[in-house]
């Protein structure tokens, strides 16, 4: 077993063997989660705080379930509505929570790099649940697990990531992870939603979705993040759907056994046709949600093991 | 009072020379130069430079001082002490204070307060009232009271009609306008230069073209009005052709750049290090090298620190939310030595940009070693190595990107009008 990280701040900091370790452990938790009695004791006695500076229902629920199934005391802080409004800084909020001696801190924040900053100031393990348009590592890991289970491997696949790449932390974490695992990555979308410098990231870029989907093993659709936009990136939803929405016609160009993914929540009829999202032969969207809980359990478990080991060394007086 | 600096390495940016010699100062003014071992005149205080470098003091154009409004970040006294320790003998202060320097009364206030500083302080005034880009300030009164230039700082006057009127009016008074070339709409919210780095780190970014567009507009207005104009910072190679064309067309245009854009690039931000957040943001390595070349060619006239003190709270934030800017009065000279040791610039070339050119552009007598010039001098060892500790800086604020950096170039003495303002030993 190899997993050295103290925090899970991004995929960028993980080595391929650490990714494999985490996914293998997550497989065990998939099995556990399918049983009637879903309790494990990996986090027994530990305190997990979910600190969301940005509203989220799905991710927060996933982390909460993951922590509870592993036996942790889980607390949710909707920070977006509390101390920030009273003028408290991010670091002060973090220090306040840190003083309550949590063991695991799950953080989402609207600014890129905010979770890195926070991790420097606390002495518990920190998981990035999404920071600005930077990274969302557990999403990429759950996508990886979903792909590995559906396609039998996580290497040498052609993965098409389609939609609002520029504003998407999901896309960034995924392209880093899939790149580390030696897959061929295609980015598809209008130029207004393509990040600057994308051409230097070792990916292929397609404006034309049909060309980009040709022969793809995995089709990863992204949410059109309207709430993130200053406005004016695309002319209309209907033109977007016509050119970049995933429908049966376009999907027919991908490999015959290609799977369709979406991180949710979906805008049916904007980036994806509802019948495709619901097609159990192609869509793995519900699997992604299931894998999400298992991957987060694995991440919490591994970080807790490293935290215990670190504290054990500190207690034994070893220099850490 | 007669001072005799012997055994010096003299840097004369006007003559373009770097030679061993001695320098004679009488009553605060330079009397002349001579051989290194020239005998001191009777009654002179002799300062044996022991081979160290003696040059005109630096003129740092565009320094933010926290008075009025933010004295906890920097006062005239603390800025002046930092300047003296950094070999800066004239500080050109920015008007982007709170409130801004946009009335004769405000200018009188800072002029009075500036007496706290041991170095020369000259002031720029705002170009528009409250720096809001709607009405021009009293350029005439402010000029009479000693404002050396007019600028709204990094706030771009986006109303081109108003800016053209400001320029026309300034031309009638022969006043200098300092612009910040930037297309404000494009650069809104940006904290980095667009490209692979900013995209992977998810930092809101702006294309270098925003600077080119801002420059193109401003130069068109300069051509229209004929005013004297200076670009505070030109930082991208794509902006250089327009600058060269304007120069060739005979427009009265000069340009500056910050020392940070000449010595750092976008990758230095690393893991969201907020001390590396600047306006404009740090650029690509290609751009940085092109700008060093532009300084060498004289297309970029002025190097300055754009000293911008920020307290710890303004920087202990996520990158895009952190305040931009760095202190630089005390690190301008050692950072410039990087360009000498590694960038292929000679000391006379550097001193043209650090001292002579800003003096000439702002109508100051300093920046020269010739007879009659004020004895504003810096004595330093360009090779002396040290590791910078930000808490050892004399500024009230410690936000420097060079914390922990290995640097070369140690100031051992600074004189303003022949009076020693820094350094004990010779």
UniProtKB/TrEMBL annotation, chain A:
Keywords: Pyrimidine biosynthesis, Transferase
Catalytic activity: carbamoyl phosphate + L-aspartate = N-carbamoyl-L-aspartate + phosphate + H(+)
Pfam families, A to Z: OTCace, OTCace_N
Domain Aspartate/ornithine carbamoyltransferase Asp/Orn-binding, chain residue ranges per copy: 157-302
Binding site for carbamoyl phosphate: 58-59, 108, 136, 139, 264-265
GO molecular function, a single term: aspartate carbamoyltransferase activity
Binding-site residues for L-aspartate, renumbered to this chain: 86, 169, 223
Record EC number: 2.1.3.2
Described purpose of this protein according to its UniProt entry: Catalyzes the condensation of carbamoyl phosphate and aspartate to form carbamoyl aspartate and inorganic phosphate, the committed step in the de novo pyrimidine nucleotide biosynthesis pathway.
Family statement: Belongs to the aspartate/ornithine carbamoyltransferase superfamily. ATCase family.
Protein name: Aspartate carbamoyltransferase
Organism: Paracoccus marinaquae
TrEMBL record, chain B:
Domain Dihydroorotase catalytic: from-to ranges: 51-234
Enzyme Commission numbers on file: 3.5.2.3
GO molecular function, one term: dihydroorotase activity
Top-level lineage group: Bacteria
Keyword annotations: Hydrolase, Pyrimidine biosynthesis, Zinc
Residue ranges annotated for the Amidohydrolase domain, each copy included: 343-422
Annotated NCBIfam families: pyrC_multi
Protein name: Dihydroorotase
């Amino acid at each position: 077993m190899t997993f050295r990280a103290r925090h899970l701040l991004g995929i960028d900091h993980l080595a391929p063997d650490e990714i494999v370790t985490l996914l293998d452990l997550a497989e065990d938790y998939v099995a556990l989660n399918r049983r009637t009695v879903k309790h494990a004791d990996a986090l027994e006695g530990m305190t997990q705080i979910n600190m969301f500076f940005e509203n989220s229902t799905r991710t927060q629920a996933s982390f909460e379930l993951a922590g509870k199934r592993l036996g942790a005391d889980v607390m949710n802080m909707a920070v977006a509505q509390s101390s920030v409004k009273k003028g408290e800084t991010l670091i002060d909020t973090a220090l306040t929570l840190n003083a309550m001696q949590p063991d695991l801190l799950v953080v989402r924040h609207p600014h890129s790099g905010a979770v890195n900053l926070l991790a420097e100031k606390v002495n518990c393990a920190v998981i990035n649940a999404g920071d600005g348009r930077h990274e969302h590592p557990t999403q990429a890991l759950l996508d990886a697990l979903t792909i590995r289970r559906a396609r039998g491997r996580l290497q040498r696949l052609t993965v098409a990531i389609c939609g609002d790449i520029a504003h998407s932390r999901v896309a960034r974490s995924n392209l880093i992870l899939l790149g580390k695992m030696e897959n061929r990555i295609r980015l598809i979308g209008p130029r207004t939603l393509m990040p600057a410098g994308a051409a230097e990231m070792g990916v292929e870029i397609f404006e034309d979705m049909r060309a980009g989907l040709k022969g793809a093993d995995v089709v990863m659709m992204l949410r059109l993040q309207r709430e993130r936009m200053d406005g004016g990136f695309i002319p209309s939803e209907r033109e977007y759907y016509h050119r970049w929405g995933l429908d049966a016609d376009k999907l027919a160009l991908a490999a015959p056994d290609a799977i369709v993914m979406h991180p949710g929540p979906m805008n049916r009829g904007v980036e994806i046709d509802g019948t495709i999202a619901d097609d159990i032969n192609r869509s793995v969207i519900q699997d992604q949600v299931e894998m999400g809980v298992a991957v987060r359990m694995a991440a919490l478990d591994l970080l807790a093991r490293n935290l215990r080991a670190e504290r054990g060394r500190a207690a034994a007086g070893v220099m850490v | 009072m007669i001072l005799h600096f012997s055994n010096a390495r003299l840097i004369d940016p006007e003559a373009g020379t770097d030679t061993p010699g001695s320098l004679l100062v009488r009553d605060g003014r330079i009397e002349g130069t001579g051989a290194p071992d020239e005998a001191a005149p009777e009654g002179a205080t002799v300062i044996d430079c022991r081979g160290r470098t003696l040059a005109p003091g630096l003129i740092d154009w565009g320094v933010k001082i926290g008075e009025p409004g933010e004295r906890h970040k920097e006062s005239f006294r603390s800025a002046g002490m930092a300047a003296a320790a950094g070999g800066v003998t004239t500080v050109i202060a920015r008007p982007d204070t709170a409130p801004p320097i946009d009335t004769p009364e405000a200018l009188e206030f800072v002029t009075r307060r500036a007496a706290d500083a041991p170095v020369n302080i000259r002031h720029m005034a705002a170009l528009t009232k409250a720096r809001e880009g709607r009405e021009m300030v009293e350029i005439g009164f402010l000029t009479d009271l000693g404002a050396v230039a007019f600028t709204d700082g990094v706030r771009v006057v986006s109303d081109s009609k108003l800016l053209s009127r400001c320029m026309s009016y300034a031309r009638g008074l022969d006043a200098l306008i300092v612009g910040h070339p930037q297309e404000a709409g494009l650069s809104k919210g940006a904290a980095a230069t667009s490209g692979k780095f900013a995209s992977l780190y998810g930092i809101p970014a702006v294309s270098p073209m925003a600077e080119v567009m801002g420059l193109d507009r401003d130069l068109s207005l300069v051509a229209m009005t004929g005013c004297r104009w200076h670009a505070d910072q030109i930082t991208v190679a794509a902006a250089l052709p327009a600058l060269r064309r304007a120069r060739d067309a005979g427009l009265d245009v000069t340009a500056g750049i910050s020392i940070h854009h000449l010595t750092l690039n976008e990758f230095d931000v690393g893991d969201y290090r907020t001390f590396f957040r600047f306006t404009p943001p740090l650029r690509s390595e290609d751009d940085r090298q092109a700008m060093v070349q532009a300084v060498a060619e004289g297309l970029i006239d002025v190097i300055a620190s754009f000293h911008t003190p920020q307290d710890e709270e303004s920087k202990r934030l996520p990158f895009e939310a952190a305040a931009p800017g760095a202190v630089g009065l005390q690190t301008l000279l050692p950072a410039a030595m990087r360009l000498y040791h590694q960038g292929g610039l000679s000391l006379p070339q550097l001193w043209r940009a650090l001292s002579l050119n800003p003096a000439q552009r702002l109508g100051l007598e300093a920046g020269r070693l010739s007879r009659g010039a004020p004895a504003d001098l810096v004595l330093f060892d360009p090779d002396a190595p040290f590791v910078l500790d930000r808490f050892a800086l004399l500024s009230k604020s410690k936000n420097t990107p060079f914390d922990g950096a290995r640097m070369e170039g140690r100031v051992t003495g600074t004189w303003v009008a022949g009076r020693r303002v820094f350094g004990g030993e010779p």
